[in-house]
Amino acid sequence: MDISNSNDDRTKQLKAFDDTKSGVKGLLDAAAGGVVEIPQIFIRPPEEVAEDLELGRTSLRVPAIDLTGVGDKGSCTREKIVEQVKHASEKWGFFQVVNHGVPMKVLDAMLNGAREFNEQDVEVKKEYYSRDPERMVKFNTNYDFYMSKSASWRDTLIVDMLNSNHLDPQDLPAPCRNSTVDYLNQVMELADTLFELLSEALGLEPNYLKQLECEKSQTLTCHYYPACPKPDQTLGVNKHTDASFISILLQDEVGGLQVLHQNQWADVEPIPGALVVNIGDLLQIVSNDKFKSVIHRAVGNVTQARTSVAFFLHGVVTPPKMYGPIEKIITKESPRIYREFTVKDYMMKFYSRGLDEKTGLNYVRI
């Protein structure tokens, strides 16, 4: 086979799909009876499928942490929560939180709003379809659509606040406008609590990560995974780690998120009212590998669409701020293993590659 011709053909197929501005949901809607053969651009390479089959599955579950009493600083309850966060961040890189303070009605409204946006008339959604990195609110299929080995079976509404925290609610689509504003306000309060717990879990003062401004520059992504006729051929999200300090995920009851733990895939089963928290690359770096940013993915579902909302906290992007391993946790036994970097530089490298490529940690490893 002529590889250059094959690549040209794939690029043409990608562009033809992208030009419809309809997303994966539009592809299904346009098919008679809603059943389609999965287009070649979404089909995973055979070697990748074979590699996953070797990994296998585990019945182990991501830790769930009850935050009841977390505000009682200095108490035994708080100490126990910190210990649970420490264990989960070191061993799993993931945990779920319950009784976190974000009202259930806010969670439900956010999921419903994201779902309604994606299930509305395609002509309305097309107004938001864009790959312009400067546009704050946009809708598309896979940010790495033209770079990954296979496209993922999902559409995403993106609220990109990397360069500006000033979000005009009128820029948000009507179906999820109010719910997004409410959710952002609530989840930012939770983020403050999580950064306190993570600071204490590193043996630092509660406000340490807050002083590093780890909560600055955020991205909210509303993912919609249409029912997939052949989920064994494609993924909802290719395996990856997150280029963030932490990510907070709200998922519906359908499920599909999996975490790579001890070389096996573990399901992150939906818990009503829970939020999933995972350590990103940037926190692994500043913690000098004490906390782990782990590989995860989302698998498809034959009969049900899935909705999830991911909130990424990246740290200061502009003006450039240097980050690196925290001096207080560098010791002779744990010498510095990363160099200093700017979030902007790290993010540029992250977004210039396919999501399914090797971890970006290698960019800054000494």
UniProtKB/TrEMBL annotation:
It comes from the Eukaryota. Residues 216-315 form the Fe2OG dioxygenase domain. Transmembrane segments: none annotated. Signal peptide: none annotated. Keywords: Dioxygenase, Iron, Metal-binding, Oxidoreductase, Vitamin C. It holds the Pfam family DIOX_N. One of its GO terms (molecular function) is oxidoreductase activity, acting on paired donors, with incorporation or reduction of molecular oxygen. Belongs to the iron/ascorbate-dependent oxidoreductase family. PANTHER family: 1-AMINOCYCLOPROPANE-1-CARBOXYLATE OXIDASE HOMOLOG 1-LIKE, OXIDOREDUCTASE, 2OG-FE II OXYGENASE FAMILY PROTEIN. This is Non-heme dioxygenase N-terminal domain-containing protein. It comes from Artemisia annua (Sweet wormwood). The lineage of its organism: Eukaryota, Viridiplantae, Streptophyta, Embryophyta, Tracheophyta.
